Amino acid sequence: MNQYRNSKQRENILSYIKSVKTHPTANVIYDVMKLDFPNLSMGTVYRNLQILSDQGEITKLDFGSTFDHYDGYTKEHSHFVCTSCQKVYDIQVDFPKREQVQKTTVHQIKGSLIRYYGLCQDCMKKMKGEN
Amino acid sequence: MNQYRNSKQRENILSYIKSVKTHPTANVIYDVMKLDFPNLSMGTVYRNLQILSDQGEITKLDFGSTFDHYDGYTKEHSHFVCTSCQKVYDIQVDFPKREQVQKTTVHQIKGSLIRYYGLCQDCMKKMKGEN
DNA sequence: CTGGATGCAAAGGGTTTGCACGTTT
DNA sequence: AAACGTGCAAACCCTTTGCATCCAG
User: Fold this and answer.
1) Residue B3: inside a domain, yes or no?
2) Which letter, b or e, does each residue of A48-60 get, where b requires 16 or more Cβ atoms within 10 Å of its Cβ?
3) For the domain that residue B21 is a member of, what is the CATH number?
């Protein structure tokens, strides 16, 4: 197996994702990192996101759009995705305990993904304003 | 707005998806349809999947792999995805009622997505056999 | 006849990868 | 010095789209 070495790029990417409450895409991360590393390439961003994901430092989120988002908050939690502006919000819900769900299936559960869709507060306000 | 016309291709695609318990990808659907329509093109498959999805006849599922799956069972239910063989199984779980979740957030919830990950029964057996 | 549906092929668009060079250990 | 990381650009791969033709209503 490979050993990971220090890399300024990877450190910065990680600290950026951890520092932000949004769930940035690879492209957003690339743009931000560009400020510190003018020669940065997309390949490096993707490679490091993959490594950080493998290390469990971040989580790759897939919201059905064409690109993935990355989340630095690895504690199990759920998301609310606005179907209008595509923003992603963290929400905390009491979903069934894993042991309980485990009873309903023969398969071995190791993780879950819980997501809600709808209109976020901002978009609701905008819509009211337009009427 | 467009009016949909009858098309043998679309009919067949729909009845295939409805008849199957798996959650086929566009490519699988294409291969199966090829038997009936040797000249079928991928464009037609995708266009029809889009239309059927718009009509609410099927649901597009995104499991984070590079391609999408389609589900003909539109009643709200959740999925179990095997992280080893990538198979998708339907499971029925008592997740929190929407009204309850709604109380925990300022955003307006319109839908949800609940998914569990782990090892399916088949893969568990295989792994035991290998030890 | 009119406008949606199809086939074909090319274009899209996010992600991955090969390779030579740069860095960390 | 050995091996991982980076930049660059090309390759990938699933999906979308333009266009001429076909066909349902």
Assistant:
1) no
2) bbebbeeeebbbe
3) 1.10.10.10
- A24 is in which domain, residue-wise? 8-71
Mark whether A40 and A94 lie in a shared domain. no
The answer to whether the CB atoms of A96 and B91 lie below 8 A apart is no
Q: Which of residues 61-80 of B touch strand D (CB under 7 A)?
A: 66-68
Check CB contact under 8 Å for B62 and A60: no
- The C-alpha atoms of residue B23 and residue A84 are separated, in whole angstroms, by 27
Give me the number of domains chain B comprises.
Answer: 2
Quick check: A93 and A49 in contact, CB under 8 A? no
Instruction: Show pLDDT as tens, one digit a residue, over chain B (131 residues).
Output: 568 999 999 999 999 999 988 889 999 999 999 999 999 999 999 999 999 999 989 988 876 666 778 888 877 778 888 877 777 888 877 777 778 888 888 998 877 778 888 888 988 887 777 65
Residue B1 lies in a domain: no
pTM for this prediction: 0.76
